[in-house]
Amino acid sequence: MAVDPTGADLATLMDEDPGGPVVMLNLLRFAPDGRASYEEYSRAASRFLAEYGGELLYAGDGDTPLVAEAGQGWDAVLLVRYPSREAFRRMIADPGYREITALRSRALAEAVLQPTVPWGSGR
Fold first, then answer.
1. Which of 50, 54, 43, 41 is nearest to 99 (CA)?
2. CATH entry 3.30.70.100 includes domain 21-63+74-116
3. Its pTM surpasses 0.85
4. Can you tell me the distance from the alpha carbon of 19 to that of 83, in angstroms, rounded to the nearest whole number?
5. What is the pLDDT of residue 73?
6. Whether 54 contacts 87, CB under 8 Å
């Protein structure tokens, strides 16, 4: 299952950049005993988020899905706003940030990172 973006994923993210801020939807499914590792990653990542102008808009635990197929529920949902896709790209390329990504990778069994584009933005 996918957890970390690939180089091709990042190239697509940047090629499709409409400009302006981006809110990244994070859907997370934890590996067994992965929540503690993700919490450690989150604490360490907050410094980089602030440094690159990002802002955690929402973080919450997934509850029982109201409408979903079996297995489509998620353990946690985050919405993170970045001033641009370029800011996100620079953050994840930062050598200090790269040092903590193993915590995230180890914590997750599956993830979705989906950039969103505001309605009415012309796309």
1. 41
2. yes
3. yes
4. 9
5. 92
6. yes
